[in-house]
Write a structure and sequence with these properties.
Blueprint lengths: L2 H29 L3 H27 L11 H7 L2 H7 L3 H25 L4 H28 L1
Helix pairs in contact: 1-2, 1-5, 2-6, 5-6
Length: about 150
Amino acid sequence: MEYRDKISNGLNELLLKNYHTQKGYLNAIENVEDDRLKLFFERCVADKNKFDTQLRHEIVNFGTKPQSTDSFAESLNRNWMNLKTLFSNNSELMVLEEAIKEEKSNLNTYDDFIKNTKLPKSTSNMLQAQKASIRNVIDTEQSYLKIIL
């Protein structure tokens, strides 16, 4: 596999995972009652939008096309579809637990890609900043979880 393709494929995977997580947060916004939690999830959606823009730009810089997020719809149903069941109980606790699980999975994907790929400094810096943001989201979600418990 060509260097450029390897990086583009990895960036596309991150793009799709962020899209997937963003859709989960949009579902959560519609189904939680706590206004502070809704506001937090709205900020998470905004972060994912920013990541989307950055990742798409970086993929194009490598001379390839960003993968269509529509092709990821089926996978979306696989993970966050579980939230439909959770939402029927209006359990903010379960929603937060699912969100934390999803973001930890994202963090692992970022770690694997960064560790296993020789990246240009600008790409590495962007991904490190996104990872830091994801860590902050996890910390905040865990704080909300402690309040609910």
